[in-house]
Amino acid sequence: MDANFYLKNLIIQNFATFKNQSISFKPGFNAIIGETGSGKSLVLDALQLILGGRADKKVVRRETDYSLIEAAFYCDDKKVRAFLEAEGFPLECQEIIIKRLIYKNGTTKNYINHLSCTVTFLASFARKFIDLVGQFENQKLLSEAYQLYLLDHFSKQLEQVNEYQLQLKEYKQNKKEQDELIKSKSLREQRLDYLNFQLQEIEKLNPSSQDEEDLLKMKNLMMNMERTQKLCFQVKESLEGNENHSGLLGQMKFLNHVFNKNPDLFFEQADLLAEIDDKLQFLQSQVEQKLNMEADPQDLEKVLDRLDSYQKLKKKFGGTVETILQTQVDFLKEKNQLEGLDINLDELEKRIEAYSEKLQARANQLHLKRVQYARELGEALTSKVRTLKMNGATLKLEVEKLEELNESGLSRAYFIAETNPGEGYFKIKDIASGGELSRILLSLRQILSSHDSISIFLFDEIDTGIGGETGTCIGKALAEVALNGQVIAITHLPQIAQFAEALIIVNKDIQSDDKKSRTESTIKEIYGKMVLKEVKAMAQLS
Fold first, then answer.
1. Amino acid 98: pLDDT
2. Among 41, 260, 294, 444, which has the highest number of CB atoms less than 10 A from its own CB?
C-alpha cells in the first residue's frame, strides 16, 4: 500500500500496567495479539486518548506522577496537512507528533507538533481522518441517523448534506430573527409611546432656568401684594412729596429752575441733571404701575401650576432644570433610533419563504438520490456479509419520505435484514447479534473505504462471538480495508492474525525488585515471515 498518512510509532509510559514501551506500526494491517488480560486493549485505550478520548486519572501507574502517551504519524496527505495548517498547526516535515500527559490529580496537557491544543481539537482531527470501530460503533450502527449518514457517504453526497444543513441553519436563524423582531416591534411600540408621552410633557413646559427664576419672583410678588402696595406708596410719596415736603420730583423742579436761570454757571451739569430727571420720571411710572396692579387669582394659579410642573419633572428626571433638558435630549435621540430601526417583516418573510423553497428543493434532490443508491448499497452489503459467513442473509436499506424538513432533509433510512431466508425482513437492531453487527460494520468499511477521507482504521473486538472459517473471512476483509488505509485491530483469532503484515504481541509479566512485585505489560513486534510462525503458535495454543 502506498500510504501517505499512517501511525508510525506509539510511546506508552506509566500507563496502567505499561511502564515504558514503544510500539512501531506498519502502513498496512497490524494485528494486536496476546493472552486475555495481557493489556491488548490498553494499546487501543492509549490511542483513544491520543484521539481526544476522556482521560481517567486511574490509568496513571501507581507510584508515578503522570502517564505519557505520544504518537508519531507519517503524513504526506494534502487534506490532513491543509486541515492542520488551517487550524494553526503547520507541518515542518512529514511527521505529526501528538502527545498527552495525564496527571494523577486528573488534569491533562495536550500537544500537537509541540504546540498546546485542546482535547476537542484532537477529537475533531480524529473524527475526520481516523476511524475507531469497536463495540460502541456497533451500537451506533443501530441508529437510523447513522444509517442515513452511511447512505449519504455511499452516494457521495455528504458535501451536499452539509450545504443543506448550513442553509437550514441560516433558515432557522432568520426564523429566530423574525420572532425576535415581532417581539421587538411590540416592545418598541410600548417604548415609543412612553418616550412620546414624556417628551410631550417636557415640551409643554418648555423649561429653562431663567423661566423658573422669573416664576419664583412673580410668585413672591403676587403672594405679598399688600406689603408691595405699602412700600410702593412710600416710594411714591418720597418722589412726589406731601404736605410736609416737596419730594424728589419737586426738588428736581427747583433745580431745573436754578439751572435754567444760570446756564453759564451750570452748563457742565445740565446734561447730568436731565439724565437724573428722566430716571426719576421712569421710576415714578414704574411705581405707579405696581400701585395700580391688583393680584389676579387666576394669574397666581397659572404661576403656581407652572412651578408645580417644574417640581414634578425635576423629581422625575433628576432634581434640576439642566437634568430635565438633558433627559429631553436623550429621549429624542432614543426616539430617533427606534423610529429608524429597519424592521421590515415583509422583507424578512420573503427571505424566509425563499429559504424554505430552496431547502425543499435541495431536500427533494437528496431524497431522490438516497432512494436511487439505497438499493445499490443494499446489494453491495448483502454480497459482502455473505462472504463473512452470513450465508443466505439479505440486507436492504429502506428509505421513506417525511412530510416535514429535519436536520437531514426529508428522508428516513434504516437497514432491514432477512438473516434466515423465507422468515421475513426485520430491522437489524431487532435481530442482529453482536457478531453479526460487527460483520455488517466491517462490510460497510470494505465498501466505503475506497472513497473515504479516513486513512487509519482501528478495530476493537471485531472478532467477538466468531471463530473458525468466519474468522478467516474477517481477516481477508480487514486485509482488503488495509489496501486503502492502515488497519490496527485487536484479535485473539489466528485465522485473522495470519493476514497481518505486522503482529504486535502484548505480554504481561510479574517483575520483582527489592522484595517488591509489580505487574508490567511489554511489547514484542513481529514482521514478515515470522508472522506465520507466530500465527501457527497461536493456533496450537487456541
1. 93
2. 444
CATH 3.40.50.300 in the chain: give the residue spans: 1-133+460-475+484-542
DSSP string, 184-236: HHHHHHHHHHHHHHHHHHHHHH---HHHHHHHHHHHHHHHTHHHHHHHHHHHH
C-alpha cell of residue 391:
450465508
Compute φ and ψ for 455, nearest 5 degrees: -115, -20
| pLDDT for position 166 | 92
Q: Are 26 and 488 in contact (CB under 8 A)?
A: no
Instruction: List the grid coordinates of 258.
Output: 436754578
| CB-based contact 44:458 (threshold 8 Å) | yes
SS3 assignment, position 171? helix
Alpha-carbon distances, residue 123 vs 109, 111, 132, 339, 400 (angstroms): 14, 13, 12, 49, 33
CATH topology of domain 1-133+460-475+484-542: Rossmann fold (3.40.50)
* Residue 471 in grid coordinates: 474468522
Average pLDDT for runs of 10 along the chain of length 542 = 81 92 92 85 88 87 91 90 90 90 91 91 85 61 84 89 92 86 77 90 90 85 70 81 82 85 84 86 82 66 86 88 91 82 73 90 94 92 84 88 91 87 81 73 78 72 74 86 86 89 89 76 89 84 64
Residue 304 CA to residue 300 CA, distance in Å, equals 6
Residue 489 to residue 503: CA distance in whole angstroms: 10
Which pLDDT belongs to residue 294?
Answer: 58
Distance between start and end Cα atoms, the chain: 31
Q: What is the pLDDT of residue 9?
A: 94
Q: Which residue has the cell 498547526?
A: 89
Radius of gyration of the chain (CA): 48
Please give the grid coordinates belonging to residue 202: 417636557
**Closest-CA residue to 98 (of 71, 127, 128, 132):** 71
Q: What stretch of H or E contains 537?
A: helix 530-541
* Placement of cell 414704574 in the chain: 286
Are 131 and 445 in contact by the 8 Å Cβ rule? The answer is: yes
Contact between 539 and 66 under an 8 Å Cβ cutoff? The reply is no
DSSP E strands, 26-65: 29-34
* C-alpha cell of residue 435: 457478531
Per-residue pLDDT at 375: 93
pLDDT at 515: 67
Q: State how far the Cα of 100 lies from the Cα of 48, in Å rounded to an integer.
A: 11
Residues 443 and 481: their CA atoms lie apart, in Å, by 9
Residues near 488 by Cβ (< 8 Å), separated by ≥ 6? 7, 25, 30, 32, 44, 47, 456, 457, 458, 459
Backbone angles phi, psi at 179, to 5 degrees: -60, -40
Residue among 240, 252, 254 nearest 276 (CA): 252
Quote the CA–CA distance of 313 and 304 in Å, as a whole number. 14
pLDDT at 283: 85
Which triple of cell numbers denotes residue 121? 481539537
